[in-house]
Amino acid sequence: MRPSVHIRRRPEQGLAVLLVRWGLPVAFVIAGIVLLVMSHGHLSGVHDNASESNVFTSTSTDRDSMLSAVGVAAIVIALMIWLLNWMLRLNADEVGDRAKEEEARETFRRTGHWPED
Asked: Quick check: is 12 in a domain?
C-alpha cells in the first residue's frame, strides 16, 4: 500500500493571475511604445550641428526626450515583471519536484528500493 503524500500543485490560473502575468506587462509595453512614438525618438541636446546644441535650454526636445526615457523605462519594467513571474513559476515547479524527491526517499527508506518514475 502506497502512502499518500500531498504534492503541492500549481494553483488554477484565475483572471487576476492572468492579468498580472500577461496583462500588466503587455500594458506597459503598449504604453512604452506609445510614448516612444509620441516623442519621435528625440534626445535632448542632440542636433545635426554640435555647436548649436545646448542641453540647458528648454525646448520641445526636452519634452520629447523625457517621453523617450519614460517609454524605454516602461518597456524595461514590462520585461522585469515578466521575468519575475517566470522565476516565481520556476520556484513553484521546484517545490513540487522536492516533494516528489522526498516521497521517493521515504519509499527507499522503507523498502530499500528506489521507486520507478
From this structure: no
Q: Does the residue 53 lie in any domain?
A: no
State the helix-helix crossing angle for 24-39 and 60-111, rounded to 10 degrees.
Answer: 160
C-alpha cell at 86: 517566470
Whether this prediction's pTM lies above 0.70 is answered by no
What is the tens place of the pLDDT at every residue in 81-115?
999 999 988 887 777 778 888 888 888 888 888 88
Segments forming the whole domain that contains residue 92: 21-43+59-111
> Contact at 8 Å (CB) between 75 and 11?
no
The answer to the question of residue 100 being in a domain is yes
Give domain status of residue 10, yes or no.
Answer: no
